[in-house]
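[job 4471] stage=fold_predict status=RUNNING
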Amino acid sequence: MSQSKVLSGVFLASFGLVSGAVIWAYVATKNIEGPIVVHFNNSDGISQTGTFFDLLLIGVTSAVMVVVNFILALELEARDLFLGKIVAAATFFLSILIFIAFAAIISVN
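[job 4471] inference complete, writing structure tokens
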């Protein structure tokens, strides 16, 4: 399997995690009439509320991050095989964290 196919697969999975989180958040919060709890901590309680648009902005920003990192990883892969894989792994890890953040927001609401 060529290296660009491996990178493409990792970034497709990363993009799928981010877009899946946004779709899951929409489905889970579409019937909520009041504000959505965006940030909650144990010491202060609810510290930030918002709407689905705020969640959508997080998703769009994350998707742009994945696309930019994909282009960066392809360019780095052409120069050094290791650096492209590092960018791909870091992007996949960040996508997992973003998915977990969306899951936490959904569970609070």
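[job 4471] summary: The chain is about 75% helix and 10% strand.
[job 4471] exit 0
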